[in-house]
Amino acid sequence: MKRNPELTVRPLTGLPMFATGMSIAQAICASLAGEDDRLRDGDILVVAQKIVSKVEGRTRDLAAFVAAEKAHELAHATGRDPEMMQAILEESSQVLRRTPAAVIAAHRTGHVLANAGIDASNVEGGEAGRVLLWPLDPDASARVLRGELQKKCEVRIGVVIADSMGRAWRIGTLGHAIGCAGLTVLEDRRGRAQDLYGRTLQATVIGVADSVAAMAALAMGEGAEGTPAALVRGCERWVTEEDGPGAVSGLRPIEQDMFR
């Protein structure tokens, strides 16, 4: 029986506190050099959405949002601040569910998640109403970062921008790919592979990018660990020459969505 390759993931240390205009690529290269390592062909770099948003200047003060009538309606229904509701509305294409705990919204990019990805954790000034929005286009951000790293290091790699999300039917969050470049997002094995008993697979589509993001998120941590990037090795077969269609290609089409 053919043995699967060994997969490894490790958080990158020595990264700075990122701010608007800083270079993630430069910081990654410096971190690896400090560990006497460098990017290799087939590596996958996973970075937390927060550092991408920070360097892209996506920090906002809630007080700057002017709550419209719909935001006030949401605030009344959820017991939450109208300004936060306005921020969610401006980042969303549709509000799907609303509770005091969270507003489930379809982000402009098509991803469905709590509060349209708006978060105050690990944001300086978060306790005073400062929040962080998602990148305007996470797939484009992944392509830019991949291009910079491949040029600097002369390697072929994949890049994933990850954020933690909940899932229908399950409790708890895990890392999801919200931006992706140079990596197979979905491996469709339907009709092309067999199980142990020779039956052709009929429904198996592997979420490669999300699986990589989830694995890396465990290594990076969710709180005060201060490690917003991780290096994944052993997934070379999914790293592609081209940037590819991005993480949005892994979103379920609306006509197949059983939860709306």
UniProtKB/TrEMBL annotation:
**What is the top EC class of this enzyme, as a single word?**
ligase
User: What are the recorded GO MF terms, alphabetically?
Assistant: coenzyme F420-0:L-glutamate ligase activity
Q: Give the EC number(s) under which this enzyme is classified.
A: 6.3.2.31
- The keyword DNA repair is assigned to this record: no
- Tell me which positions the record assigns to the signal sequence: none
**One Pfam assignment:** F420_ligase
Among InterPro entries, the record links this protein to: F420-0_g-glutamyl_ligase, F420-0_gamma-glut_ligase-dom
Keyword check for rRNA-binding, yes or no. Answer: no
| Residues in Coenzyme F420:L-glutamate ligase-like domain copies | 15-234
Alphabetized, the UniProt keywords read: GTP-binding, Ligase, Magnesium, Manganese, Metal-binding, Nucleotide-binding, Potassium
Domain of life, per lineage: Bacteria
Q: What is this protein called?
A: Coenzyme F420-0:L-glutamate ligase
Question: What gene codes for this chain?
Answer: cofE
